């Protein structure tokens, strides 16, 4: 691999955790089945995916498994199915009709449980409401809602009639909502008066009102009453959810939709430019999310499965709604903040509802560590049997903490690598079969082709860093960027010839485990050494005083880039020069002198996206010039930025 393209890895990890034998023997994927799945996928990958697709209910069988016309794929060509029927109707002919589909807890502590029967009925009724307002297959519907059961109902109602949903996270501004509505040309918006977050009301309807002033395609707005706040209802355009439900029947046969029918658009921000509308379709998407939920999350009928992601993110689409419900699982949903009224809210929920699986993000785990383990230890948590993470590289020390303090050393951890664009999990352990190590998502799932390449497309050797690419089409892959197929080709299929460019740096070890080093734009070039920020951050986080760290490069005449680390400390610790020196030494010991931060800045909080990813781009700008000029619409808490700027001045 050429010098300029190498990303060097300095992480050494030797802790290994084979699956506990009692877990392995009862897992959906036992070691024997895992070997068989991998062998089948290697022998004939199309036949392998066809076998997974065949576990769904199809209204018309497909005639061709894959039509691959790079970079465009069609899966299960000619087949027809309905996703809502697969997530709901087919369970009604079994004992699951009375099983809890959703157990929901609001932030104020109110709860609701919907059985599969009840959820099906609500979905049919809401689908009829959509039809009443003229929504037909192919029309786009924007969903801007709190985490209540109705957001799942809205998604499934769209899927039932073939309307393409575009969920916009409820924390986004009116402008962000307006741009997304206009880009997709939505005809209808589903929203709520507001939501509860940290004990206060986040108002949603006023943002919709502002957005709709400049959204000419929207004819109708349906408003769920959640907080009871007073809202302005525009006559003719705005209607209450509960009033509309009274006007329709609960009979709504599912549409037979083409396997390639557009199921949803979900906007994801690039580092530059306007957000990309990632388009996902029907048959391949459900095939992969249903299969991976079964294999990796090990969903069983007696589980209470909790993925803490908001439905506004892809994780919420694939692993709160579609994947688990296709498996007939019981899904836990929670409306509010993890630290309301106190930092043990998640653990209260686990004990209160007997949650068996927790799937959350590294950013949440680092927050729990910062709040202190006493909040976790107050609760039993003995119902838990499996833990998962997604969204960012997990620092090995955070992984160990999750395993010991939350999982009591008993629960396997599945670190799952995937993207909005991949639709479903791509690299992840099979918890009954794969030996895990802190910090690696382990191996590609059966049927998934992953390689590490140089920028010129050359393969690299074991433990050499490079660019993570996907070498063959997969069923849940994005089909295009809505309205901009050129950008789809450029962004994903032109960076490295012939393969999908994921935008992540990674290395593969001798055992075939993949270690994600972060986004490639998060790579720092120090004196000709390209270092992944994730490793330096993990080294910092492994120091007992550090809660969270974000590392960026600052242009430096001598070295190319200097390493600047923004660090938040464990509660009760204060940052001073002695600690700075200690942290620099610590990084030198963990990684090497080369990775020693030139500058360490202590801060109360790091700027994060609303989905919890650290916005290193902003920190880069602050490190370089003390100011931020780029787009900040995805920033969660603007005051963090103000503070960082003030510290700089
Ligand atoms: C599902 C989701 C995708 C980016 C991805 C990568 C990072 C996600 C990860 C991970 C290391 C993991 N990422 N999971 N990095 N280990 N287990 O998060 O989708 O919001 O589109 O983000 O997140 O950088 O490229 P999305």
Automatic annotation (TrEMBL):
Residues 1-23 are annotated as: Disordered. Transmembrane segments: none annotated. Residues 535-613 form the AMP-binding enzyme C-terminal domain. ATP binds at residues 391-393, 415-420, 504, 519, 530. The modification N6-acetyllysine is found at residue 613. Residues 1-16 have a biased composition (Basic and acidic residues). Residues 36-87 form the Acetyl-coenzyme A synthetase N-terminal domain. Residues 98-474 form the AMP-dependent synthetase/ligase domain. Pfam families: ACAS_N, AMP-binding, AMP-binding_C. Its cofactor is Mg(2+). Catalyzes the conversion of acetate into acetyl-CoA (AcCoA), an essential intermediate at the junction of anabolic and catabolic pathways. AcsA undergoes a two-step reaction. In the first half reaction, AcsA combines acetate with ATP to form acetyl-adenylate (AcAMP) intermediate. In the second half reaction, it can then transfer the acetyl group from AcAMP to the sulfhydryl group of CoA, forming the product AcCoA. HAMAP family: Ac_CoA_synth. This is Acetyl-coenzyme A synthetase. It comes from Chloracidobacterium validum. The lineage of its organism: Bacteria, Pseudomonadati, Acidobacteriota, Terriglobia, Terriglobales.
